[in-house]
Amino acid sequence: MRGPPGRILARRLSFDLMDQGRPLNRQFVNFVLMGLALAAVWLLLSGLLKPLLLGLALISVLLCLWLAQRMDVVDAENHPVWAALRYVPYWPWLSVEIVKSSVDVARRVLSPSMPISPTVFEIRATQRTTVGRVVLANSITLTPGTVTLDVDGDRLRVHALSRDTIQGLLDGEMDRRITRAEGSLQRLGAAKDGPT
Amino acid sequence: MLALVVVVPLLGAAVSTLLPAGRLPWLWATAVSWFMLFAAITLASQVMDLGTLSYWMGGWAPPIGIEYRLDAANALLALLVAGLAAVVLPFAGRSLAAEVPVEKSPYLYAAMLLFLAGQMGIAVTGDAFNVFVFLEISSLATYTLIALGRDRRALTASFSYLIVGTVGATFFLIGVGLLYAMTGTLNMADLAARIPDVAATRTVHTAFAFIVVGICLKLALFPLHLWLPNAYTYAPSAVTALIAATATKVAIYVLVRFIYTVFGPTFSFGDMPTVYLLVPLAVVGLLSTSVVAIGQDKIKRMLAYSSVAQIGYMVLGIGMATTAGLTAALLHVFNHALMKGALFMALGCIAFRLGTSQLEALGGVGRRMPFTMAAFVAGGLSLIGVPLTVGFISKWYLVLAAIELGWWPIVMVIIAGSLLAVIYIWRVVEVAYFQQGESTERCEAPLALLVPTWVLIGANVWFGIDTRVTVGIATRAAEVLTGAGP
Amino acid sequence: MIAAAILAILVTMVLAVIRALLGRTVYDRILAVNVFGTKTVLLIAALAFWSGRPDILDIALAYALINFIGVVAVLRFFEYGAAEGDEVQGK
Amino acid sequence: MSFLAHFNYYVAIILAMIGFYTMISRTNLVKKVAGLNIFQVSVFILFISLGVLDGGTVPILTETHTLYSNPLPHVLILTAIVVGVATTAVALALAVRIREAYGTVEEEQIQAKDDQP
Amino acid sequence: MSAALALEYAILVPLLGALLIVLAGRWPNLRETVTLVTAVALFAIVLRILWALALDEIIEITLIELLPGLSIALHTEPLSILFAAVASGLWIVTSVYSIGYMRGNHEQHQTRYYAFFAIALAGAMGVAFSANLLTLFVFYEVLTLSTYPLVAHKGDENARRGARTYLAILLATSIGLMLPAIIWTWSIAGTLNFTRGGILEGNITAGLATILLLMFVLGVGKAAVMPVHRWLPAAMVAPTPVSALLHAVAVVKAGVFSITKIIIYIFGLDFLADVPQERLLVYLVGFTVIAASIVALRQNNIKRMLAYSTISQLSYIVLAALVLAPLSEIGASVHIVAHAFGKITLFFAAGAIYVAAKKTEITQLSGIGRRMPWTMTAFAVGGLSMVGVPPTAGFVSKWYMIAGAFQNDNYFVLAVLVVATGLNAAYFLPIIFRAFFDTEDQPPQKDHGEAPWPMVVAIVTTATLTVLFFVFNGPVVELEHGILRGPG
Amino acid sequence: MSALLIDLLSWVLIVVGGAFGVIGGIGLLRLPDFFSRIHAASLTESMCAPCIIAGLMLQSGMTLVTVKLVFLVIFLFLTSPTAAHVLAKAAIHGGLDPGALRDADAERRG
Ligand code: NA
Ligand code: NA
Q1: How far apart are CA A20 and CA E313, in angstroms?
Q2: pLDDT digits (tens, 9 = 90+) for B351-410
């Protein structure tokens, strides 16, 4: 059977937990995964293994799942956890960018003349998934010197501290890398959720 | 049992939220309230023969653990709360169905049960901080209940009550905190034992001031009463009946408990100028609010002001700092609950039929709703203090206490209060019986409302004639509190 | 050395408070408050090491959470326009 | 030194004053609630600071530490904070309902709307 | 029926009557029958009690024990039986009269009227037989509240205002002065029971005793001692039979009865005799006698004139009681009867004149004696009794009062009595002369004779009683000597 | 040797973080309008916080404490841009003008 490890695991789970032959239930799988994630977080944060605390952990995890289900934030769409995994190759580059632009902004702030030229401009996003587009928007905001004001369709409205710093964004370097990261798992057969 | 009386309504509230909207939540709440009454009666009888009961929450010993403690004073209070609840909730069924949208019913009755749980909690807990918690539980329930009133003014009324109430509770909390700082305990009995050693410190004096002021905000002692009239006026009828009958009474109890048990009479009246604080306020409030009541053309509001006046009587009794005075105050706490409950319920019947409590709308109601108006008149006579009603008994004791102290002006004030009550009650009677309304066809309230109302009226007469129980417990409680008795 | 970090954080917080007071627009103030909040998170974290009680880090996490929710809530309030008391949108 | 000895009291008092002033002076119901919160927080701080022991550390038991500040106030204030949050929630809910009913949360405007029915 | 049972019935029967009247409301004849039957039954019961008292049976029953030592209890003694007999007896006559009056005037709400009338009688009986101050107070208030609807009977703004004044003054005085006085008494004497020789002696200083007595005399507003007399003229808005109830049958009598009883059985004559300041009250009451008579003299409306005459007559009784001489006490109690007979006759007459001739002013009465001989003769009898001229009841009581005044050499009272008699003559005799010897200035619009027969019957009866009492007062006076023995 | 190196590195990170924090604060004060101040703020969020936390991680080594710090930094990275974004949106909604939109494509050619 092909597919990302999570998907394979999920299929296994679904076969074990549900009566045979039923088509695989993605939402249920995502629930299980979310539950496991929450449990892991709890364990890591408390680091205690007393039965009482574990019992409480179980209760609170279930409570969270119930709430999530009521708010239906968990749907058939791919889980952010896996989304996060996809962008691993992109993080180092982003960090470097952040450092560079931080230094630049710091320079402008400290220099007596304060050489700034606030600008608003638009760029086009080429990502196909919503997650991808969110990643782009947040990356822009994370890097000092630029902030995403508004996202509408594939057009991002950006405010920059200075005209000189926006060239990189206009060249679309960041956009390209994100799209590539998004695609990188695509080849492994990730969910096809077209642009919304 | 001591724990159940609080835990059951708490859980009951949770259950109520899960019930389907309709009559079911009401039935459930009523059942719970009747259980509470049963429990309260059992406890009260135990207290009367066995003396003070004590129970450690979760087996933790005080001061870490919370002690539930029941003596004559809070036995009386528990009886009062449970009894009133057991009568008002049956009444609430029809009355609230007419005033509150049905889909809210599960939460409505959950709030009522929370309110009762809080009131009961205050009644039985022996832990100062626990009092604060329960006070806030019941207050929060009250805010939501008041906000359910049909008129949008109910919202603003509830909001201002919330602000004032929270400030009051926070003041109380400050006081408790300071006491804790000085004594290292929150258990009332321990506090009572340890305060004398530190009574001289300024911190304890500050604590006393904060606690008294905080509670007086909650119990709407003049001039801190401004939140009350609107709250009572715009809340749904049954809610008004319940909170008017119990909420302020419980606050009074807390005041008594702290002045007499925790701080002790010697400190409260010896070291602190409590008398000069409470008595003048009580007197001025009693007279002024009675006069204001006469001016009201919304009967519900009139009764609300009269409540503030009646609170004046109770505080007066507390301020006398004698066993007789305290007995009178406790008696009036109980008796006023009976009369105000009855009056507001009778008014609820009228509102149920006429959809208003405006005075001018009552022309000829005496003929249209004979039993309801008869109940109102009976309750009114009790409020005035006519013999063979509970009102007379509490006035009798209050006046005796005043004479005992030789406070003749106070006697006159008490009497004057009764006369003012005559005036504002009679305004209603005159319109209802001797003025023609536009309609004359009979529209007596349904039995579901009449029966509970008359049960309370019956209580007004019964306890006005057979005073052994009430006077017995009240005297005993006063003796316990003033340390005169066991 | 952590003392240095704490000092730096405190300085930042002071500057943020000044901005919050100078404000100009309410949004400047919220921005400053937000900065103040995240710096508080850092401060708690640093203090955890300073006092040798890393357990306190949980508090830092909780505080980060509250700070975020708080800022969003406040913004919601101002966006809602309740502060100006104008008519309700979409009503 | 005596000033520092009562430092916590002064902080609490100042905060209480600020909260109280806000509550009274502001006509915007939501701001009143904010004032109420500040007022309550001042009390919480007072309570907590009462439990402090000099040299004592956070009352989370470990092997290494022996001297803790008094945990009881923390417990109580935790409760008080919960109560406070509940109160705030109810208050804000009311504010929302009021806004739906009156279209404003400004006291005078509400008053005006009640007076001219 | 045992005497003790009779005591309870004296209160229960009228209440039961009221209930039946309400039930019979739809059938007027049945309703009125119920009223009459109840009235007669009550009178019979009172006679039964009188009989028991004559045999020196001591009758005392406790209905309810409110607080330890404080109960709702009934007993009998000469004064109470006298009051009870007068009230219940006159109720019969008044009922007959009411039937004529209410039907003759086509009044509304007659059921309410008869029902509350019965309740008022129950209250009066309670006052009469009350064994302690609390019981007295309770039934006193029952009487007050039950007469309010009667006074407000017409229901128009004017009637409501009059009734408001009536209720306000009576409640204000009773709750404001009488109740505190009672509680004070309780707190110093530890009991409220009516006891021979009083309960206060030795527990209270003379000065305070005077204040207490003043609180009682003014607190019992029904006695209409100035300045708390205003309710009586205000109540003139009521229908005539109600005025009869107020002035003769129950209400004002309950007032003077209460004061007499308090003076005799709470303070005690001997104790008060040692209270010099008590004289101040004598002056106050004496002033009321004179002042009220002068006001009456200046009235033109018959009923108002009668009202002020009542005020002065009541003060006779209080005055006599305050003289503290045995004979004057007897005079006081006898005058309760005498004034009852005389005044009810006068009011019935006034009512008859109103129903027959629609006349309300004295100046309109010229020559009416020829059209209504029976009525006006009765009026003359009543008037003479007020003045105290033989052969009428008024003479008997005045005789004992004067004798009592001599007994204590109380020349002030003596003077008051003489002057008042003169004034009474000055405002009654002219009316009588005008009625019989003047000629009608202008003929009336409708040619009328006597009022409906039930009214005439009632009037003649009461007038006859007034005269008969002059002759056969022996038993009553004899009975009232018992006051000086007092209850058990 | 490597322990010393790690220590050194952590100190450097902490100092750098602290420095950027202060600079951000200064920017918060110096910069002329709200939208530029956002950038100063993001300086303290995206640079100062991670550096200091990283420094602390190096202090604590491979323990649960480090895990918590990781959670902390992840959380900050998720929330701080969101907060900034919401803030900017609210400001625009509230009537603040971020400035005229420039023709981006022209820029690219130029
Ligand atoms: Na009340
Ligand atoms: Na709060």
Answers
A1: 111
A2: 888 888 888 888 888 888 989 999 999 999 999 988 889 999 999 899 989 988 888 889
pLDDT tens for each residue of E88-118: 998 998 898 888 888 877 777 888 889 999 9
The string of DSSP letters for B108-140 reads: HHHHHHHHHHHHHHHHHB-BHHHHHHHHHHHHH
CA distance B156 to B291: 25
How many A-F residue pairs are in contact by the CB < 8 A criterion?
A: 116
Residue E441 · residue E366 · CB < 8 Å: yes
User: Could you say which residues from 124 to 143 on chain A have a Cβ atom under 8 Å away from some Cβ of chain F?
Assistant: 137-138, 141-143
Lowest mean pLDDT among B173-187, B463-477, D47-61, F40-54: D47-61
A118 → closest Cβ in F36, F80, F108: F36
Cβ–Cβ < 8 Å for E143, E127: yes
Is omega for the bond preceding B106 within 30 degrees of 0, making it cis?
no
Query: Which residues sit with Cβ closer than 5 angstroms to ligand 1, an ion?
Result: B 244, 248, 307
Interface check D114 vs B, CB under 8 A: yes
Q: What is the DSSP string of B250-304?
A: HHHHHHHIIIIIIS-HIIIIIIS-HHHHHHHHHHHHHHHHHHHHHH-SBHHHHHH
Which of B157, B140, B94, B121 has the alpha carbon at shortest distance from B10? Answer: B121
Asked if F27 reaches chain A (Cβ–Cβ under 8 Å), the answer is: yes
Count CA within 13 A, CB hemisphere, residue B468.
4
Neighbours of F62 (CB within 10 A): 8
Query: C-alpha distances in angstroms, E299 versus E271, E291, E309, E352, E363?
Result: 40, 13, 10, 19, 10
Cβ-nearest to F30 among A99, A114, A121: A114
Q: Which ligand is nearest to the CA of B311?
A: 1
What count of residues does chain D have? Answer: 117
Chain segment E16-69, per-residue pLDDT in tens: 999 999 998 888 889 989 999 999 999 999 999 888 887 877 788 888 888 777
In B, minimum Cα distance to D115 occurs at B153
Q: Under DSSP, is residue A123 helix (H, G, I), strand (E, B) or coil?
A: strand
How confident is the model over F39-75, as pLDDT tens digits?
Answer: 999 999 899 999 999 999 998 888 888 888 998 998 8
Of all helices (H) and strands (E), which one includes residue B385? none
Task: Say how far apart CA E338 and CA E388 lie, in whole Å.
Answer: 10
Query: E170-223, pLDDT tens digit by residue?
Result: 999 998 899 989 988 988 888 999 988 888 888 888 888 889 999 999 999 998
Give me the long-range contacts of E135-141 (CB less than 8 A, separation at least 24).
E135/E71, E135/E72, E135/E73, E135/E74, E136/E258, E136/E261, E137/B387, E137/E174, E137/E178, E137/E179, E137/E182, E138/B387, E138/B388, E138/E72, E140/E174, E140/E178, E140/E220, E140/E222, E140/E254, E140/E258, E141/B386, E141/B387, E141/E171, E141/E174
In angstroms, the CA C44 to CA F68 distance is: 13
Would strands E60-67 and B67-70 be described as parallel, antiparallel, or unpaired?
Answer: unpaired
- Identify which has the larger pLDDT, E391 or A80: E391
The reply to whether F58 touches chain C by the CB within 8 Å rule is: no
**Helices marked H in B51-127:** 72-99, 105-124
Q: Using only C-alpha atoms, what is the Rg of chain A?
A: 21
Structure token pair of residue E450: 């006597």
CA B387 to chain E, closest CA, distance in angstroms equals 6
Residue that has been written with the tokens 């309902």 in this structure = D97
Question: Residues 12-51, chain F: which have Cβ within 8 Å of C?
Answer: 14-15, 17-19, 21-22, 24-26, 28-29, 34, 37-38, 41, 44-45, 48-49
Distance CA D88, CA B136 (A): 12
pLDDT at position F1, please?
Answer: 59
- E3 close to E49: Cβ distance less than 8 angstroms: yes
